[in-house]
Amino acid sequence: MSELYDVVIIGAGPGGYNAAIRAGQLGLKAAIIEKRDNKKLGGTCLNVGCIPSKALLHASELYEAAEKNFESLGIKTGKVSLDLPQMLKQKSDAVEGLTKGVEFLMKKNKVKTFASPAMKRLNLKQKNIVIATGSEVTPLPGVEIDEQKIVSSTGALEFSSVPKHLVVIGGGVIGLELGSVWRRLGAKVTVVEFLDKILPTMDGEVSKQFQRILKKQGVEFKLSSKVTGAEKLKTKVKLSVEPAAGGDAEAIDADAVLVAIGRRPYTAGLGLENVGVETDGRGFIVTDHFKTSAAGVWAIGDCITGPMLAHKAEDDGTACIELIAGKAGHVNYDTVPNVVYTYPEVASVGQTEEQLKEAGVAYKVGKFPFAANSRAKTNHETDGFVKILADATTDRVLGCHIVGVEAGELIAEAVSVMEFGGASEDIARVSEDSITIRPVERGDVNAVYELICGLADHENERAYLTATPERLAQTGFGDNPQWRGFVAESRGKLVGYATYTQGFHIWSGAARILLDDIYVLPAYRGASLGEQLMRRVFEQAADIGADVSWTVLPDNDRAIAFYRRLGANYQTIGKCRWQPE
Amino acid sequence: MNTTYDLIVIGSGPGGYVCAIRAAQLGLKTAIVEKRSTYGGTCLNVGCIPSKALLHASELYEEAGHGFDKMGIKVSPELDLKRMLAFKDEGVKGNVDGVAFLIKKNKIDPFHGTGRIVKPGRVEVTAPGGEKTLVDGRAIVIATGSDVAQLPGIEIDETDIVSSTGALSLSSVPDRLLVVGAGVIGLELGSVWRRLGADVTVVEYLDRILPGMDGEVAKQLERIYSKQGLSFRLGTKVVGVERNDDGLEVTLEPANGGAQDRLEADVVLVAIGRVPFTEGLGLDDAGVLRDKRGRITVNGQFETNVTGIYAIGDAIAGPMLAHKAEDEGIAVAEILAGQAGHVNHDVIPSVIYTTPEVASVGKTEEELKADDVPYTSGKFPFLANGRAKVNKTTDGFVKILAHAETDRILGVHIIGANASELIAEAAVIMEFHGSAEDLARTCHAHPTLSEAVKEAALAVFRTRDFVSRAGRRRSLFDGGDGVTGSSQQRDETFLARQVQSADGHEHAAFVEGVQGGVEHRGVAVDDDGLAESLEARRGYAGLLGQHHLQFPDGADLPVEIELHHRFHQVVGVVDQREIGAQHAELLIFGNRRQDFDLFVGRFQPRYRDSMDARFFGDGHVEHDFAFLQAPALAGGAREQHGNHPGTIEAHGFRRDARSADGFQNFLELVLGEERVERSAVGVDGGFGGPEQRAGRCR
What we know:
The structure holds two protein chains of two kinds. Chain A is α/β, with parallel strands linked by helices. Helices cover 32% and strands 26% of the residues of chain A. In chain A, the strands form six sheets. A seven-stranded mixed beta sheet of chain A has the order 23-24-25-26-27-29-28, sandwiched between helices. Chain A has a five-stranded parallel beta sheet with strand order 5-2-1-6-17. Residues 429-434 of chain A have low confidence and may be disordered. By secondary structure, chain B is of the alpha/beta class.
């Protein structure tokens, strides 16, 4: 006899089990199918992915800290030694606890579980099927995984002893995490990466800085290199490595090899072709809001496009079930964070600088190093930085990239701000007011006059001021080539100006610009407004091939240094000159 | 001749130095007065920084001794206290040197010595050698912070009867440490010495630890600390300490009287609190008022009753926290430079750096109960969090308190590893007036501790049976009972949005706020009083002061309008048309420029169908409003950025139209007729209220 289910979910990884929980909460009659032995729910993530790797990362991090840093904290350690079987056991215990937890959640939410070995040939009737079969390790031709010496991430969680030399193929998240684990426990680790950078999809600056940190920790890198073959010797593996662009192969001896070049969707044996579920060229199931091409069949997580991340699959699962239940389910893929759990951690969300450049988006960068953060400094955890990319005009946060201890936890704040379409000022009230610089116009007469008065007061020269708004207006003000300038404007108020007259050198007849005044209201100094105004004048001069000259008091060292910085020459008679190149 | 400074800051703690640096960055000529030989105040020298260094090192020491074997790390740890204290001193030195560098880099003139205000605009600095210097400045900011509160009859000598200062430098681990006061400082330093081997007893006058914290959090913590080995004597007061051959003998008495008993100790740490430090500042001569607790009285602009004298940080009311002082320092510098400075005192997190850490922001359950606010609580234990489990840091939970009707997050309380970092997310969400659902639907990386925050938020909104987002937002916007209620409590913040038309003439203010935990939104119309106040102060957001809002049921609500720091008002004209003889325009206004961008994005044809408009007006008032929003698409996707409170709200605003029709016609033109529905009720200067809630929405 078979019951009718509202939804049957295939695969009990983070995507599948979260979908099942949501289904239970929404009152749907749900069943979940898992093929892993002994009812081990939780999929790759819980059994051979995120969870066990984090358990080893955490323990090995403390092991290394005890070995290297404790003395400086006033903790004498004596000899620190590794009990690898115990370290692996505590990892397995954590995994077991969490898979049991998932089992409990299935029961609690009244989800029927069909799992190996109790699996018989069953016929389930259902209204909807959700495919949540996840992904599997991408194999590398010529390097056959035996999970003993040549391992995938699964085998790299179970080495019975620390390999002397571990070669990691692939400088992505998994390779760097597991490489870090075994380096800390004593292995020499070499990472071979086909591309010319590690963490290829991450922000370039992050990947560069992070590589530097890992190198300092002792990880060796062979970038732009490919592994073309592996020969198993008695105790070792001989790898042949070639430059990615082609060239002579070199041989590298390894005690263990970790193949971590990526993952691919796992849909084999599902019978997709029987029901007409389309897949794309790379094996991903084609979906539109989780709907596949077959009626009543849905798919989520790693087996559809998008980042292969547990939390993306979880959100997919929740949203997919909500759609099945006729509610509004949605995942905002622009704000899915990504974390590398090394030491320090790396976390990012949103766009990278490279992506923004390619899309032609004007952006600004805010960066803060942990070396200047009190707590990081106190804890001797100063590696890394926080980098925020914000839209140049709206200040909206477009991306956030963190290298640093606890980056994985810190990124949550950035994700929240981005979910709200927040501005970088909303995170840290440090950004300057938006100030625009534009050519002076006729209508600016009164405002510029006020600024001129301000300047006169500043120089204690109010008594000598001859300008009046009327006289300024008579000069043409903006329309007159004899009298021009730029103003800095903040929220409709003029806060600074630079004015000049344009003419010709008497002898040579070449165009010249004589700078009259430059002034910025005191409250708006410190944002390099003066510099920006000057540069605008210089740009203008460059356009017409003019040089710019102005006077400066000989004892005004600060001003002279400032002008020099902008590329001007100081001439001893108290004159400054700038020439276009 | 003496220089006249724009600003003299007295005290270089986190409030003072941050204020001075910000002021200098804004172009003010700034001086700073510090009597210690190093900058950084209590926080950097004898407070947060050194205690965190000891907490960090002692935590690892304890973990090495207790948890490492289970993780497969064999080690026999031994304490090198001298080295640990040196590690702490390195941390302090690195940080105070950093401040000295910043002061120099920003060209702030330092004056080393004790400052005294001779008269407004003049500070006398007495150097350690005794020589006096006079410093003149247009403004003075008092940032003198606080000092340890003394316990009558017990004299602190900083050797065996110590304050927090002495407890950071004990030369050996005491066998028995008695801590007086179960507040943050007592628990943090008590934890340090317990981990290093002391037998620690904490005596607290009240019948609970951490007064002011959420009760459930405090109770759970007491359990955790007790399990770790701290002993507590609650409801007990210390009446005396005597020295004998064997150390100290402390006399205890039940708080409400009764038989005394005695406890022996080697060191007593007095940590009953801190008091504002304003002695010798010359405040009485200058006529600066203080409240009964010695705190300097300031207005919303941090100015004292004496013009030109300002005060911030521990020396004024509010939580005595370094980051609160910092924010106030920045705000006052911005105010002095003619900008808009503001601190949102509702969203200041507080943290206890013990193991596990404790962090909270916003209201406690007790406060919500006392205010009669209906709330829902969502809780998630770290025991069920993957990362906590693998890290073996499963003590604690995340608890989120949200408004029962609007789902707005009112408070977040976390016990757990890294609680101090996790709370930042909660604070940001609260700054945006976010709901529990917003937090729950934000993607959190797996496996992180921050997932527990998300799960707690899920627990809140699951209990409300999945209210659809659009529906919930609408009810929130419509105001709720609070708008028409007569509650006059002033434990709330109000935000005001000034509506400005293209010609620069202000017409009205849009006001929103929370009163007694209930959302209010209202319109203050363009009467003379408002127009006047609109023009007051800073051109772009000067709605400070008292206003009266008239609501449809005749209720009169006095509103104190404050400047909000995210108040960089942007007003945009989305569209304007001549309809008949009337001119109508649709304005949008938001906190930030991107609100405008988002709205314009929404106006693209592909979004048009997803937009609802609701029109409020009776055709007689000058200013009719329409609320436009994009609800969740029917059965489809929640569009990116849609439906987050604070992200996209647009408010139509009719100008120069004598009847409602003009504006409504206009909206119909813009949005399409079928999407605009008129609500047949009046909003005579008010927005929201029961009548409007009765209005239908398509």
